[in-house]
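Objective 1.3, modelling of assemblies. Example input:
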Amino acid sequence: QSVLTQPPSVSGAPGQRVTISCTGSSSNIGAGYDVHWYQQLPGAAPKLLLYRNNNRPSGVPDRFSGSKSGTSASLAITGLQAEDDADYYCQSYDSSLSGLVVFGGGTKLTVL
Amino acid sequence: EVRLVESGGGLILPGESLRLSCAASGFTVSDAYITWVRQPPGKGLEWVSLTYSGGDTYYPDSVKGRFTISKDTSKNTLYLQMNNLRVDDTAVYYCATGSGKFDYWGQGTLVTVSS
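Predicted structure (tokens):
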């Protein structure tokens, strides 16, 4: 069981908007820790997609955006494109004794 | 340009040990915030270990006492010593670095623990 909870899958047609949620608790997202998002294409290593909740690294299109509120965060993708078909992971930190770095279980985005 | 190259994976028997390497270029491992993350086949990402520039190391309960992260500054290389390996340690192991987030990732090395 992942410390951060994501929906296993989401889907959308090209051009549509989808959101992926990342739900944590008072010991991680709710404690004020930043949330980062990664995109993993099939057969590839993860790639940083958003950092510190809503910041895009150079080269990431502005179709990708993030938000954080309370114990949750979300990733929004607008204008879906075929190349967005991938797995998405949220990541944060946790102040409990069992672990420091925590990931969500991942969400498979299917572009229909 | 930052580059990370993992090596050392392979097929190993349960209970045995293995050391993974992560050769770094474009930055100095001694100054870095650097981590190991693994991904079992068909599953999600799992954090395995973390070390800061000060030398502190951190592990999740699942590997604490079995895995050790270390650095060789002369080779600019990060290591993950894995002892008493179990079948559920089977995964692709990635090293990654950044400043609080993981900007750069290696290509991964596959560790298969099986009898």
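Chain B is about 0% helix and 50% strand.
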